[in-house]
Amino acid sequence: MIVVDWQTLPAPELSRCYDDERAVWTDRFAWDTTDNWRQVEAARAVGTLPGLVAYDDGPRPAGWGFHLLHRGTLQLGALAGRSTAAVASVLDGMLASPEAARAGDAMAFIPETGAGVRDILQARGFAVRTFAYLDRRLDALPPEEVRVECRSFHAGRLAATADLLARAYPGFDPARPFAPRGTADEWLDYAGQLVAHTGCGELLPWASLVDEPTDRPGRLIGAVLTTRIAPLTGHIAQIAVDRDCQGEGRGGRLLRGALTRLAGRGYTRVSLLVADDNRAAMALYGRHGFARRGAFLSAWRSMAGAGV
Known about the structure:
Blueprint: E1 2-5, H1 11-29, H2 34-45, E2 51-55, E3 63-70, E4 73-81, H3 84-95, H4 98-101, E5 105-111, H5 117-123, E6 127-137, H6 143-146, E7 151-152, H7 158-168, H8 184-196, E8 202-203, E9 209-211, E10 222-230, E11 233-241, H9 250-264, E12 269-275, H10 279-287, E13 291-302
Parallel strand pairs: 4-5, 11-12
Antiparallel strand pairs: 1-2, 2-3, 3-4, 5-13, 6-12, 6-13, 7-9, 8-10, 9-10, 10-11
């Protein structure tokens, strides 16, 4: 197995990798990632996004991946390949990179598509957690879903949303694929990524809702952020309820509000991600017609004193 720096390769060679991965996301998740890979290629081309490509005996890439050092964390992307050996070689190369040497920890959030990726990650010290990818159609909402009214999200509520997320998901959780340390800065950065970038789809402000008590303006006790991941397909990128207010049905009302607004604009399908071990959330989504379509892996490990 030969592993090379992807910045030494011509763009057409990388387009094969992007096309293969785009097909996986379309077929398994009904998610159009065309813009995402265009942004990845633009960053690769100017040298701001490191990555590796593995070759076996043939001319076509056997595996590939990219990485980015962000806030002290080595973030691993793609990590895709046609064989276990190819994926393992790419991962080992990224863990031995200059960026990895400066990282305090490493994390990945990738589709579970075979090639033994889970075993490869665990063998290299990663704690791996499964997230179910659920979806449902929107062409037959029951009447009770149509009557829900909520306030719309806007950019002025970004800081309040980050504060809500910190209260809804307190503390350090290395298996969490967002804000694992649980700091205020991490939550603000994460919320900003959802609002301003397309990694989880393009934000739909009119289908993103907040629960803001009239007696405490500016402090949210619930929110749902909704994105578009394909024509007429929405995605519940994040839903959160203040821990002090959970068990009151607020999450269900926010979810119904988002579904209603999507259906009202002609959207025909909606998806979301939820940790397999979050039984309460799995039950909530099951009651609202969501069914499992696939899975993602969230992986984390400390880089302190670690070798490959």
